[in-house]
Amino acid sequence: MLEFEFTVLDWSAYAAGLGNQQDWLDWAARPPQLPTIDAQAAPALTEMPAMMRRRLSPLGRYACQVAWWCQQQPDSAPLVFASRYGDAAHTLTLLKELVQGQSLSPTAFSLSVHNAFSAVYGIARGHTGNALAVSAGRASVGAALVEAAALLADGAPDVLIVFYEAPLPQHYRVFHDEALAEYAWCWRISKPVASRPLVRVRVDVPSDPIDHSADATPAAWPSGLAVLRHVLQQMAQPEVQAGGHTDASLQRQDRPGSQWTWSAHA
């Protein structure tokens, strides 16, 4: 069993129609509903110089915008950018150009790799600290938090986690095993802080086989959204804000042979 705790010092999130913290708190309080997908809803990201901003895809703007909101002043806090698929649409465009015999743009290629968004963000902010790019299938959000917890254990005072996702291009939709969603969120986390709500993550490896059938259907929520909604719900509970805890927890089976349990308390 692996277990760790952390405090969310600050957070931000973005999706079509959900542009600030209150929007997301209201969304988390309502019956479950996935955010709207709108290809024209990318954030303005006016904080980034225009020349750099133009290089980013809509998903890149999602990721960099929530990171910027959560890191108002540049600092050297480690960055963990995470996504299951990354910018798959950009990669598919390059593959089509390759098949057609076109020359690939070095700039376009450099923006297709999984750490491209963290690199562009780091350059724009003058960031000189550690930066990681994580992908671990359906367990990508959990893997990102394990990386962040390791950085905290290694002495980092706080860590910025940026999680982002968009639907796969139509050619790749056959591989989708979760509901389609386009969103990004960022948490600035630290080791547990007294009197502040904290999040506990536990990873178990049960002795009995886990039945994944119910959680592997197309209707299953993406982990990134399920975890965000649960944590926002629990942190808004009066019991947690008053220094107590609730019995509510979120259990996910996003990695074969393991079960992730998320809870929030003080």
TrEMBL record:
SUPFAM superfamilies: Thiolase-like. It comes from Rhodoferax saidenbachensis. This is Beta-ketoacyl synthase-like N-terminal domain-containing protein. GO terms for molecular function: acyltransferase activity. Residues 239-266 are annotated as: Disordered. It comes from the Bacteria. It holds the Pfam family Ketoacyl-synt_2. Residues 248-266 have a biased composition (Polar residues). InterPro entries: Ketoacyl_synth_N, Thiolase-like. Residues 24-241 form the Beta-ketoacyl synthase-like N-terminal domain.
